Amino acid sequence: MRTVKESSDELNPPVVTSAVITRARGRRSLADNLALAFATWGVGYLPVAPGTFGSIVGVALYLLVEAATARLFAFGLARGWTLAFNASFRMTLLLLLVAVVTLVGVWAATRAEKLLGRKDPGIVVVDEVAGQLIAFLFVPFNSAWWVIIMGFAAFRLFDIWKPYPIRRLEALEAGLGIMADDVLAGIYAAILMSLVTSIYLWS
Fold it and tell me: Which of 23, 28, 124, 168 can pair with 32 through a Cys bridge, CB separation 3.0 to 4.6 Å?
């Protein structure tokens, strides 16, 4: 039996897979509700372009990290911490956030598939959250607003366009397939953003 993979982006065509999803029966447990909350971030239930709103959540998380980093920099510089240490700590914080969102996202997306009985349900947007965060990994601290907007647009471009081999990753099983394609789209966007910001800072 073949199933049709959904999409949280209305521009993506349906993808037919060989996966068989069995819908969970009975009352939902606390773990089920936590998985759905993390998989959807609330915005997944929006009727229009939930994937785009998932990316906006990723942008918001990135801006929160930047705000926390600004406070940390002020605290550290007052105590003699070097700029190199502060920059390294910021990158570590971003990488930890990406790792947590991605790993927990695989679990949450897998559970959401079983609960909803659908392959890659459209309401699952944690993959967009993770991919959007990855797109900003190499963006310099305290960048201008145009850089943030471009990072958002770059990730949405790669997520919807899905250049090789992004689309092939969707065939992976369960939550791994849900997360993997957006993670790679985020990597492509991160490479582009690193190139653009390097050229801008050099010129």
Answer: 28
Q: Would you state the structure tokens that stand for residue 87, as one six-digit string?
A: 């920059």
Per DSSP bridges, beta strands 15-17 and 3-5 are: antiparallel
pLDDT reported for residue 89: 87
Phi-psi category of residue 24: left, alpha or beta, with phi > 0 → left and psi -120 to 50 → alpha: beta
Which residue in 148, 166, 160 sits closest to 10, CA to CA? 160
Beta bridge partners of 5: 15
44: its two tokens:
């997944």
Query: Mean pLDDT per 10-residue run, the chain (203 residues)?
Result: 56 53 72 96 95 97 93 84 84 95 97 91 96 96 92 97 92 93 97 94 83
Within a domain: 6: no
Q: Long-range contacts of range 21-27, CB-CB < 8 Å, 24 or more positions apart?
A: 21/113, 21/114, 21/116, 21/117, 21/118, 21/119, 22/114, 22/117, 23/114, 23/115, 23/116, 23/117, 24/114, 24/115, 24/117
Pick the closest to residue 22 from 181, 169, 174 (CA basis). Answer: 174
- Cβ neighbours of 76 (radius 10 Å): 16
How many structural domains is the chain composed of?
1
- With respect to residue 12, please indicate whether it lies within any of the assigned structural domains: no
In this prediction, residue 27 carries a pLDDT of 84
Residue 2: per-residue pLDDT: 44
pTM above threshold 0.85: yes
Question: C-alpha angle with apex 94: 145 to 164, nearest 5 degrees?
Answer: 80
Range of the domain at 124: 31-202
